Amino acid sequence: MSAAARGFRAAFGYGPAGVWRAPGRINVIGEHTDYNDGFVLPVALPHAVTVAAAPRADGRLRFRSAQAPEAFEADALPEPGTVAGWAAYPAGALWALADTGRPAGGLDLYVDGDVPSGAGLSSSAALVCATLLAAAGDAPPAPEETALLAQRAENGFVGMPCGIMDQSASMLARGGHALFLDTRTLAAEHVPFDPASRGLTLLVVDTRAPHRLVDGAYADRRRSCEEAARLLGVSALRDVTDLPAALAALPDDRTRRRVRHVVTENARVLEAVDLLRAGAVAAVGPLLTASHASLRDDYEVSVPEVDTAVDAALAAGALGARITGGGFGGCVIALVGAGRADACAEAVRGAYKERGFAEPAFFATVPSPGARRLA
């Protein structure tokens, strides 16, 4: 019996109808491109959110979590914007189902997971995806539809104007591959990405800098991109083909920098995909570093802890490193030779100690499978 199933029985006094698992994600490259109809290249993590659940006939909701002391209960499905904290995400999943004509009814839900919360690894998207699968039971929507429902939950219920990348990675990913996703058409390609087979390690540094996106900074950048697209006469920044001309047509330096990041980041994703198709995994490293510089300088979503980790990893021999996720904290990824991972971690740890930052955490990750039912 899984830990989630045991937790469910302890919390509710009976056994669950099933157990479902949805992974977090790391984005290899393609940051802040998804809501601009652009390209992304995430992988699913071995870390996941697991839920044990059982339907209720009375419409009541009871949520518990192994990682949070706050319980949630409601006699009926709440309205958007009325649920605070972690419970907003499973509530949003049920709301998305109901809002598209598939009410799930009541639900007892127990959540357990090992995706580091607040680290920019999409624990929230994993929780929504796992809840959607649990609520759908034996008749789940297709993975692509589940990803769209999960995005709808975050956008419409939680109030987070995210794109489709995190949910797609959680639902569609395959082991040993990165997910090349066109966020406009939702066309997906599983591109081979197995660093270990090339003598490399994908090292993740949890900077422990708080990662908060619903405070307006993310939404502000999305609005800026949408306004820039309107000024340029395109439906989204993905459609900008002449970057110098576009920059010359924009009214202020901040908007120009936002546009430059999105357009150049899309180009970096396409170049990375070509390299991975050719098996040139190590050659992706410089693209990661260029992505970080663009996110730091043009998109302005980095923080000192992140920049310190990137600089220290590069100085210790990493082939490339960058912030991953929405920014303002969270995690750094570094592509390193397998024999250099410990040295890079020690270099980051030393730089943090020197600057008085909180102790970072490290783990090596491998591209892993997407969401599934466990029991």
From TrEMBL:
- Where does the GHMP kinase N-terminal domain lie? 89-172
Q: Where is the GHMP kinase C-terminal domain?
A: 273-353
Q: Where is the Galactokinase N-terminal domain?
A: 8-55
The cross-references to InterPro entries, in alphabetical order and at most eight, read: Galactokinase, Galactokinase_CS, GalKase_N, GHMP_kinase_C_dom, GHMP_kinase_C_sf, GHMP_kinase_N_dom, GHMP_knse_ATP-bd_CS, Mevalonate/galactokinase
Query: What Enzyme Commission number(s) appear in the record?
Result: 2.7.1.6
Q: Name one Pfam family in it.
A: GHMP_kinases_C
Enzyme type, top EC level: transferase
**Keyword set, alphabetical order:** ATP-binding, Carbohydrate metabolism, Galactose metabolism, Kinase, Nucleotide-binding, Transferase
Name any one GO molecular function: galactokinase activity
PANTHER family for the chain? GALACTOKINASE-RELATED, MEVALONATE KINASE/GALACTOKINASE
Q: Which family does the similarity line name?
A: Belongs to the GHMP kinase family. GalK subfamily.
Protein name, per record: Galactokinase
